[in-house]
Write a structure and sequence with these properties.
three-stranded mixed β-sheet; Protocatechuate 4,5-dioxygenase, Chain B; alpha/beta; about 270 residues
């Protein structure tokens, strides 16, 4: 059994050649200096026409290892609160294996992590990252985690077990938190709110990010994955977080009254 694409032909091209060419072209538009010692990234998950440039520029700024743990919000509300997909993923541009060894170690490290395919069946937030990763890493394997609304304590518990599993794995692992920023507010309000959240991210303050999003009603759909990744990255020695790019959907649609914000960020160890 393997997972079939949920949003091919909608969020990104469904034809293999067109998808590969699209992802490759977006990536080739950027040649930034590589950020060394990257532990994690934050990347948006809208349709490529809206957020593909941010995703491409962010991922092109680092070296993608063979194993990537992708954490995304569970938009569908299906399945376990911390749902791990253990099936390989069929993508238009080829099958991507799940790293079964890493996944098994994570399942043993944290009983709150549940092997559950239902949470992933229709979820787009992890899937849209994969074609870019495939272009950048020929030997890609993934560890897909769909997260529901966790408490801060639950975020800490998951982050600790994730960091411990990465440490014990002994090979390079990238964590990728999939998140869009504010949804369907004016550009002015979106920038104000998203700046508050991104200030907490770049300050390496996961609790501040978690609380700021809630206190200011910021509709950052992936605040839980980003909080978990930031907590885990700090445990792994992170001491720097930088925003690579920030845009909103109005740059494509022309509508600045109802925009969605998109940010790409890199968390690294100096």
């Amino acid at each position: 059994m393997s997972r079939s694409p949920a949003v091919a032909g909608r969020f990104y091209p469904g034809e293999p050649d067109v998808l590969k060419d699209t992802a490759t072209e977006l990536l080739e538009n950027y040649n930034p200096p590589k950020i060394e010692n990257c532990i994690a990234v934050v990347s948006p998950h809208a349709g490529y026409v809206y957020s593909g440039t941010v995703c491409a520029q962010t991922l092109k700024s680092i070296t993608i290892p063979e194993t990537v743990v992708i954490l995304g919000p569970n938009h569908q509300g299906r399945g376990a609160s911390i749902a791990l997909s253990t099936q390989d993923w069929d993508m238009p541009t080829g099958k991507v294996p799940v790293n079964s060894y890493f996944s098994e170690q994570l399942l043993q490290a944290n009983p709150e992590v549940i092997a559950d395919e239902s949470a992933h069946q229709y979820e787009h937030s992890l899937e849209v990252q994969v074609p870019f990763l495939q272009v950048l890493q020929d030997n890609l394997s993934i560890v897909p985690l769909a997260l529901s609304q966790l408490s801060y304590l639950e975020c800490e518990n998951l982050a600790n077990s994730l960091a411990d599993t990465i440490s014990q794995y002994g090979k390079p692992v990238l964590m990728l938190a999939s998140s869009d920023m504010s949804h369907f507010e004016s550009r002015e309000n979106t920038v104000k709110k998203d700046t508050l959240a991104l200030e907490q991210l770049t300050a390496l303050n996961p609790k501040g990010l978690f609380q700021t999003v809630r206190d200011n009603r910021i509709s950052m759909c992936g605040v839980i994955p980003v909080t978990v990744v930031l907590l885990a990255a700090l445990r792994l020695g992170a001491n720097k977080a930088e925003v690579i790019r920030y845009i909103d959907s109005g740059e494509v649609s022309g509508d600045t009254e109802q925009v969605v914000g998109y940010a790409g960020a890199v968390i690294s160890r100096g």
